Fold this sequence. Notes:
single chain
Amino acid sequence: xxxxxxxAVWFASGVIKAADADQTWAAVHAYQVLPDALVDxxxxxxxxxxxxxxxxxxxxxxxxxxxxxxxxVLVLFMAGVAQAWARGLSIDCxxxxxxxxxxxxxxxxxxxxxxxxxxxxxAVWLIIRPRTWLALDGVLAPDDDGSSPGGGGS
Length: 154
């Protein structure tokens, strides 16, 4: 269930961002951390990268590697939110749509960081226990005794 939960997070985030490219651009730009030349490529590729992570997790292909990539991306997202908060920027994170500048009282940095910490915990769990039920990893790379993992509840 952990693998499928993290897959759902990436799918939801990626679909919403892909559906509104202009808003995704505004969200990436609002963080004020990338050079202008990188805002367009990051805003363009980010939704598709998130969708790819979601698909790989859904299928259970390369679960540990995808969990590591998920963890790295989540830490980067959390660093972005933390730096925006520390610098006094008033932005919506754009994590699940929206994004860009908001009124100073409309930020929710603490909640966003807590939520992403939960998502990061899912990624860490999958790094530790990547073998999950109904994952293609078990078919593509069976355990040493030739059997596929029977369960793991993840």
